[in-house]
Design the sequence.
């Protein structure tokens, strides 16, 4: 193909894929009343999305919090503001780092597994068999996965926030000369000392995680359902799912941050 034809084909495929993914997401939430019939499968997906992702989430979130505190503390120490390390670490983890880290981990682990599983079913005509038996693939395959990841991603994000802040306290006490008591008091003042039931910094991060979870699941399942061409097609579907999920996490993170902080301030 010449460059113009290739660019047109790429653009058309991108728009068709985006439309298919959005339609699948909407149909998955529309099928939510059927969740009790898929309850066992839904719980299995919650286990896959949440429990199996715990070890890597714990390790990455803790180390990320330590790195964030160390790098930020080095600069704050130059200006004599090292006492603010608890505030900076807590706000950074809850607003952005926690949801982003969790989303990327789930996209690389759970999202790729979803795309591979559904893609294998597609290329082996199992999805076609479901349609022949009058079973809606969205209701049977997509809805439990989308709902499960939408629920589990915020829970893992809350754990990531806590572990990242804890990692920052370890660095603060061991490398920056900030006492653990003072560190956690600044964290409390930054996040929890408010009249609201759920502070804005915590709520915005949890809401981001819900959006990220729904996006990752819908993109991954849609990539699997659109797979074709045997084993090679499944591999391409997995690559496409992870790539698009990470890009969507970055884009949605930017949009939601603008909405929660810039738009309200303006």
Sequence:
């Amino acid at each position: 193909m010449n460059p113009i034809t290739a660019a047109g084909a790429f653009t058309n495929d991108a728009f068709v894929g985006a439309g298919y993914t959005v339609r699948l997401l909407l149909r998955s939430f529309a099928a939510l009343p059927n969740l009790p019939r898929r309850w066992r499968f839904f719980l299995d997906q919650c286990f896959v999305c949440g429990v199996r992702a715990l070890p890597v989430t714990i390790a990455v979130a803790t180390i990320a919090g330590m790195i964030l505190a160390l790098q930020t503390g080095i600069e704050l120490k130059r200006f004599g503001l090292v006492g603010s390390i608890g505030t900076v670490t807590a706000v950074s983890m809850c607003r952005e780092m926690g949801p982003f880290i969790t989303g990327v981990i789930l996209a690389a682990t759970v999202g790729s597994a979803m795309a591979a599983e559904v893609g294998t079913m597609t290329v082996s005509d199992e999805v076609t068999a479901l349609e022949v038996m009058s079973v809606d693939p969205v209701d049977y395959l997509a809805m439990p996965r989308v709902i499960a990841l939408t629920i589990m991603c915020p829970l893992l994000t809350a754990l990531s926030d806590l572990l990242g802040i804890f990692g920052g306290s370890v660095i603060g006490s061991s490398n920056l000369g900030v006492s653990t008591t003072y560190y956690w008091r600044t964290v409390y003042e930054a996040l929890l000392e408010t009249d609201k039931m759920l502070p804005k910094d915590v709520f915005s991060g949890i809401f981001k995680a819900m959006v990220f979870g729904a996006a990752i699941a819908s993109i991954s399942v849609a990539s699997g359902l659109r797979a074709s061409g045997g084993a090679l097609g499944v591999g391409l579907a997995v690559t496409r799912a992870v790539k698009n999920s990470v890009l969507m996490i970055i884009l949605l993170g930017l949009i939601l941050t603008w909405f929660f902080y810039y738009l309200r301030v303006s």
